[in-house]
Amino acid sequence: MNIAATPKVAWSMLAMLAFAVNAPGTGAVATAEEASRTDARPAREALAASDSARHVLQRFAYGPRGGEVAEVAREGALAWLDAQLASGGEGDPRLAALERRTPALALDPDDWARRFVAVRRAAREGMAGEERAETRELLGQVRALVVTRAVAAEDQLREVMAGFWFDHFNVFLDKGADRYLLPSYVEDVIRPRALGRFEDLLLATARSPAMLFYLDNVRSVAPATQRPARGGAPDRPASRRTGINENYARELLELHTLGVDGGYTQQDVIAVARILTGWSMRPPARGGGFVFRPGEHDFGEKVVLGTRFPAGHGEEEGVRLLRMLARHPATVRHVCAKLCARFVSDVPPDGCVDAAVAAWRASDGDMRQVVRAIARTPEFWAEGAIDAKVKTPLEFVVSAVRALKAEPDSSARLADAVARLGQPIYRQPSPAGYPERQEDWANSGALLARMNFAMALAAGRQPGATVDLDAILPLTADRSALVDAVNERVLGGAMSAHTRSVIVAELADVADPVRGRALAVGLALGSPEFQRQ
Amino acid sequence: MSGMMNLSRRAFLRAGGLAMVSYGLDPLFLARAVYAQPAASSRSGRVLVCLFQRGAVDGLSMLVPHGDGHYYKERPRIAIPESAVIDLDGRFGLHPALAPLKPLWDEGVLAPIHAIGSPDATRSHFDAQDYMESGTPGVKSTADGWLNRYCQHQREHEQTPFRAVSFGPELPRILSGSAPSLAIGDLRAFGLRAPNDAARDRITRAFEALYETAPTGLLASSAQEGFEAARTLRRIEPERYQPEHDARYPNGRFGQSLLQIAQLIKADVGLEIAFADVSGWDTHVNQGAEQGQLATRLGDFAQALAAFARDLGERMNDVVLVTCSEFGRTIAENGSVGTDHGRATAMMVMGGPVRGGRVLGRWPGLEPAARFEGRDLAVTTDFRDLFAELLDRHLGASSLAAVFPGHAADRGRYLGALRA
Questions:
Q1: If pLDDT is split at 50, 70 and 90, which confidence band does B344 have?
Q2: Does residue A26 register a pLDDT over 80?
Q3: How far is CA A230 from CA A200, A221, A237, A251, in A?
Q4: Distance CA B320, CA B80 (A)
Q5: Once rounded to an integer, what is the mean pLDDT over residues A420-424?
Q6: In this structure, what DSSP letter does residue B170 have?
Q7: Of A356-365, B31-40, B402-411, which has the strongest mean pLDDT?
Q8: Which residues, in sequence order, are CB contacts of A380 under 8 Å at separation 6+?
Q9: How confident is the model at residue B311 (pLDDT cuts 50, 70, 90)?
Q10: How many CB atoms lie within 10 A of CB B384?
């Protein structure tokens, strides 16, 4: 199918029909629901079922597991996505086992806070401290878990969305107390709401000590004249520090909600910062949890985006503000455009964003409905969108491990590999999170490093993962048959004729079938096709 | 050489050039291809080396204000004794551990700058480093670093994969952005890995073949740049490099980074921007005085810089090296015989084009009334004015407004760090 040659009038129909349909000769059967929707389609012009399956698995999952494309092609791409959307996250014994073997997950926020206090005391006294080494080990587990969950989870969409929201509401592991606040931020704030309502997520991040510390809201204190006459929070006398800090307010508007072109002014930033004065955290020695400090709050009148917040209100005006921001049309459009950039194209197509916005409005920001709508737009299924995005290092490593059905161990070695490819997990200092566009990831040194990773993984030499190629590929001296199997089982059918011929030629003088197979797999994982999704 | 310089132009033509526009494919690839326009650089061969002392170095120990009585009053246990200071101009002197740099001062190719820092008063390492690398103090959402923006807007430089190189495993914020730049942990290990040369050549050829198809756009051009870089490095044989003029680099990552920068400069591979960082300056506890923790780090630092200058010899005429750190430390020592996070620090510029042998900047003084918030050395030079001068006068940058948005370029604020 050549897009450029397709008349514009046929576009919408063609694209509408394109999802989850089956090309002739694949022998796959559409589900009843799909069949009814795809009546009278010109099958010749539709995507092959395997391409549809690969597309959803590359966008709404961390890539297909070895051989999974064929399974999903039989089931139907949208049927697979609907099952993901319907899943409640239970009944995943593999993931449960993985989480059980991770001691860091057994710690609660109080445990982490105690650790923070102990390590800080040891550092002040110039001692190494056992807690320090232990904490490093525990944080290694926390980073490792990002990779292992993405590899193993049955609920792939939930993992993808959890990653998306962490980047949207990024915090930085190496900023002071965030080292100890981040684990609970991930487990208790982001993950449970990954497929929930945007407003709930926004409110939860705004109340999270990890965010309030990261963006300095804990330092934002109303000027003395604006504080209550008998000031003083119950657990602490009115602070000596004064002055608002605009960091969180600015990023809340620019990154979390309205977007940089969302129509707010510096006066709005200041007003938002004043409304959120007092949103703070307890000292780590007292658990480090969220606390509202009336003694630091600015009780004066404020105006945000033309809306008046009358004098005399405390914590509740912050909640009112966040609810207002969560529903603001600029917010809806900004977040929908980011979702479309993640799922469809680096430059999100308008039609797709419009559909996402409509679904958001109809569902009050229910992410399941928004994702569902995006997956049903013509833009998502446009041929130009298939295999069009460059994988991030995390997506590359996880998709490679999944493609080979390799078993990650409990160490942080795969997470370290992701870091060496340029994306250290939880270590993005910028509140904008890791970028989504290809130019941020396609640099030359990192690409060579990906090729090295591909070869090492295929040969079973990559620390952190156990590979058994016997489980997914035949051992054969027939080069053509081998490369076809690699294309089907490892690349999900994405291999170009050129790549196929290069790999076949490279195998010409490799007599040992075990070496030949590893070489073919390594070249396939390092090929341009596998850098894309 | 010319074969390598033309790499991206070739890649571009190979990929079908402007024919791609009609497909609307990969505009970024096209944008990058623009970098490969024929070279018209008037200043080829000039290099800027930027070194980041992460962790906030104590500028008052690097460049000791031994003429200021408050210095000794506030630091009874960690001040550098007058007798140990290497005096420069009667008011300021070098830490004794920086002795290897004194000959460079004497030759007039080293200029320290005091009381320099960020207009943003944050005392968070993370925020302050972020601002110094984005080049936009107070603005967190800036996507790219200022060194990368320089490369984005200064495109007439000859295109080579080595134009902007960071020495370390990851590309730092200061060099991240849409202009191509390379992170190299070790020149000797760059490229594809294999048990032996024959195997490496073979696997490299295979991957080159995989990526040579047109038009896979950005991935293809980036990969080809990577292969070209690896090939160039094999040719210059980094494992056999011997520093010249008896230069002795200290062991450790930082010394090796400087050694490799010198090597790339001498190999004439088109290096224009080099970056390396070194940590260990966050001396809250037991900082030491003429000896101790900080002295050891400073000694290593100075030895590496001195070896670099010695090794490069005449080539230092094309090189300006600048050191920076996110902020300085408190004037007064703390209860743990160390110092806490402060405001201004000291930086240094070094190289043939430097108008050295002078201490630059305006000294605000250490008396309590002159301090920032009553405790810290005040900032009298915005770090962007120093960096802007180096980009402008050394590299010939023509688009400083885009490199430092929100900070109007004003040559009147330059420190006069470079010879006219």
A1: very high
A2: no
A3: 33, 16, 10, 32
A4: 29
A5: 89
A6: S
A7: A356-365
A8: A19, A59, A343, A344, A352, A374
A9: very high
A10: 23
CA distances from A315 to A277, A280, A293, A294, A310 (A): 9, 11, 9, 8, 13
A269 or B169, which is more confident? A269
**B183 DSSP β-pair partners:** B166
Within chain A, how many helices (H) and strands (E) appear? 26, 6
| Nearest-by-Cβ selection for B209 from A255, A446, A502 | A502
Q: Amino acid letter at A501?
A: S
Give the helix ranges, DSSP H, for B362-405. Answer: 383-389, 400-403
Residue type, A52: S
pLDDT above 60: residue A295:
yes
Distance of CA B281 to the CA centre of its chain: 17
Residue B285: list chain A partners with CB under 8 A: 123-124, 126
Token readout for B152 is: 């984005």
Element (H, E) at B116: strand B110-117
The full DSSP string for B126-160 is HHHHHHHHHT-TT-TT--S-HHHHHHHH-TTSPP-
Confirm or reject contact between A443 and chain B (CB < 8 A).
yes
The answer to whether B207 contacts A526, with C-beta atoms less than 8 Å apart, is yes
DSSP A186: I
**DSSP-assigned letters across all residues of A264-323:** --HHHHHHHHHHTTTEEE--GGGT--EEE-GGG---S-EEETTEEE-TT--HHHHHHHHH
Distant-in-sequence, close-in-space partners of A432: CB < 8 Å, separation ≥ 6: A170, A255, B140, B141, B143
Q: Which amino acid is at A247?
A: N
**How many Cα atoms occupy the beta-carbon half-sphere of A39 within 13 Å?**
4
Cβ atoms of B76 and B285 within 8 Å: the answer is no
- Measured CA to CA, the distance from residue B36 to residue B23 in angstroms comes to 21
Contact A439 B206 (CB under 8 A): no
Cis peptide bond upstream of B215, omega within 30: yes
Q: Which residue from B82, B44, B129, B37 is spatially nearest to B327, judged by alpha carbons?
A: B129
Q: Where are the alpha helices (DSSP H) in B84-217?
A: 102-107, 125-134, 146-153, 197-211
Contact assessment for residue B13 and residue B37, using Cβ atoms and an 8 Å cutoff: no
Residues of A in contact with B216 (CB under 8 A): 528
Region B183-209: mean pLDDT is: 91
Classify residue B374 by burial, with Cβ atoms within 10 Å: 0-12, 13-18, 19+.
exposed
ipTM comes to: 0.86
SS3 A401: helix
Query: What is the secondary structure of B295-318 as a DSSP string?
Result: HHHHHHHHHHHHHHHHHHGGGGGG
Contact across the interface for A123 and B285, Cβ inside 8 Å: yes
φ/ψ (deg, to 5) at A292: -95, 125
Q: What is the pLDDT of residues B151-186, one digit of tens each?
A: 988 876 667 889 999 998 778 899 988 888 888 888
Query: Does A433 touch chain B if contact means CB atoms closer than 8 Å?
Result: no
CB contacts, 8 Å: B171 with chain A? 422, 443, 445-446
Best of A167, A390, A451, A509 to disrupt the B interface by mutation (most B CBs within 10 Å)? A451
Q: Return d(Cα B324, Cα B383) in angstroms, integer.
A: 9
Which sign does the torsion angle of CA A10, A15, A16, A20 carry? positive
- The two tokens of residue A210 are 């990890």
Segment A133-150 mean pLDDT: 95
Using an 8 Å Cβ cutoff, are A211 and A205 in contact? yes
Put simply, the chain A residues between 320 and 339 with a CB less than 8 A from any chain B CB are: none
- Segment holding B346, helix H or strand E: strand B345-350
Q: Which two tokens stand for residue B139?
A: 């603005």
Distance separating alpha carbons of residues B257 and B251, to the nearest angstrom: 10
